[in-house]
Specification:
Elements (H helix, E strand, L loop, with lengths): L1 E6 L3 H16 L3 E2 L8 E7 L3 H17 L6 E7 L2 H7 L5 E2 L8 H6 L6 H8 L6 H5 L10 E5 L1 E2 L10 H5 L3 E2 L2 H13 L4 E5 L17 H15 L4 E5 L8 H9 L6 E3 L7 H6 L6 H14 L4 E8 L6 H14 L3 E6 L17 H24 L4 E10 L5 E6 L4 E5 L9 E9 L3 E7 L9 E2 L3
Parallel strand pairs: 1-2, 1-3, 3-4, 4-5, 6-9, 9-10, 11-12, 12-13, 14-19, 16-18
Antiparallel strand pairs: 7-8, 14-15, 14-17, 15-16, 17-18
Helix pairs in contact: 8-9, 9-10, 10-12, 13-14
Amino acid sequence: MKYHLVSLGCQMNASDGERVRSIIESMGYQWTDKEEDANLIGILACSVRQKAIDKVYSKIHKWNKWKNKRNLVTFVSGCVLPSDLEKFLKLFDILFQMKDLPKLPEMIQQYGIATPVGLQQGFDSQNENISEFWNVKPNYTSDFEAYVPIQNGCDKFCSFCAVPYTRGREVSRPSDEIVQEIENLVDKGFKSITLLGQNVNSYGLDKKGKEVDFPELLRRIGKLGNRLNKEFWIYFTSPHPRDMTDEVIEVIAQYKCLAKQIHLPIQSGDDKVLIHMNRKHGMEKYRQIVHTIKRLIPEATLFTDIIVGFTGESDEQFENTRKAMEEFKYNMAYIAMYSPRPGALSHRWFDDVNLDIKKQRHHQLTEDLKLYSRNYNEHMVDKTYRILVKGKARHEGYLMALTEGKINVRFLSTDESLVGQFVDIKITSAADFSVEGKLIKINEEVEGEEKGSI
């Protein structure tokens, strides 16, 4: 018996998928890369983007046609709005919340017995018994990179976002479990570990007095890194500017294993748009955070998220976002054109920015980003960096890697034994979003050249 799983959306769904795979394989199913060979097919959906939901419908219509020729069971879970779930109920055999993952074998045995009433009761309490899900041992899809969930849900209720309605209110995972999972991963040779949550830097606030806060969690992980004395990088995503404190940045600066790369979503560079988005922070607060990062961790790279064409966004307000891009000179920005999502507050508002204008703004910001990214990358040339080799590059005869600051690197080599390993590289040229370098042999001495920080 074979199975196939499709994960859409963010890293949280990718991490959830590793636990789903673990449960399915405990039943005796074997993974297949080909959907058409599977007896059990699942999809982890994402209601945050309409494109992801459209892909769900495309997949399930194809899979349901296959049922005319062979036995096939389908299921759906993930980050899904109730309105989407009601439609999925008629299309999939099994629907379940991630907190109910341990019950999936029973659901499969019963061939997906589900009712609208049962689903509604379940999704009114999204994070009840979430600890049972966290206790599922993941089936990691990589042997050197891993995701570690530290919380689930969100309390921020940004007006454009459906996450509080798909994943519920914030619930923090016990810190002892988190640190233990990281220690186990490092002992097994994992090199890159990402802490996951919808708002990681509010970790512990739902359990005040009973759990540590986010800076202390990072500190404990940093001390673990010192004690283990092994080389690995710890990342986290995503923080919210409202909860980002100087202490978080101070702790990152203090410990070697805490990667010097920070993803800090800005969404817009205009204060009025930020109010409309219910972001609960202004540009001055955001600017202070970036200044602290530059002061305490000058080598850190800075990534962000930006929405263009949000309801009511004027040309002037968009220009303020361009000014923010120029001021902060991001290494990478994930730019999205606004689309209303059912369940989010802004879905009630008229989407009054023309699609062509959204595309123009998306293109303009992307061109701005290229400029600042390339300028940073050009300053990397002739410097030596530590990199983690990820796999084959698209160009024949090359391998690709990431610096600690998540700058893409390619270098001439066909030695696939380097994949999953740290190596040193001298940067020889730069492009818009990547650099190229020359591998430095382990025993090769590097003289008269500058060492890069990230």
